[in-house]
Amino acid sequence: MGRMATHVITGAGSGIGAAVARRLHERGDDVVLMARDAGRAKQLAAQLPGARTLVGDLSNPDRLSWAFSHQAMPERVDSLLHIAGVVDLGAVGDLGVRAWHSQLNTNLIAPAELTRLFLPQLRLDKGHVIFVNSGAGLNAHAEWGAYAASKHGLKALADSLRHEEHANGVRVTSVYPGRTASPMQEKVHSQEGTAYDPSKFIAPESVATTILMALDLPRDAEVNDLTVRPGR
Fold first, then answer.
1. Average pLDDT, integer, range 156-180
2. Which of 87, 112, 180, 221 would staple 202 via disulfide (CB 3.0–4.6 Å)?
3. 8 three-class SS
4. pTM
């Protein structure tokens, strides 16, 4: 019997990340859940018994390397799944620097730094890096400037990484979900001042299914970009 696959997942506490972590855990894979602090790590571990946790605050990417140096890191990584994200709507004329920094740090700089730190393990296993982007990574609308900028940057990061690591056998996929029923979407509706009806949006499980499809694709193929839109 072969070694079980190991997946490092950000954003596993809710929404798409929780659905992906649950599916991988249920099928017997080894999941390593990123948590911002020890308390959050304990909560995540309780949700998926047997899962490992790794503490690192994505909103402060400068400290990730230091945080990891004080913890046991997985020796092998089959996939790195960037699913965490934050959103703070506002017009360019209104958004302050703090809102820009928080979204760029969590949505773009932290994924870049995590990828750098895990690349040796990913190369060893010819692993897969999946960036859960957003429709805002392809089109920017009013009030979405900072979030869309972080997600457009995430597309550029994924595209560059794909070219750089193809010869090393590392696959890179960007997934662009439309509006998905999640706590983030609830926050967006609150900021927009509109009623939130989760039945109108994509279920996190459906996005998780597309992510697992990309992960499980035979080695002779790679999904580069995958757009998932609401089906109703």
1. 95
2. 180
3. strand
4. 0.93
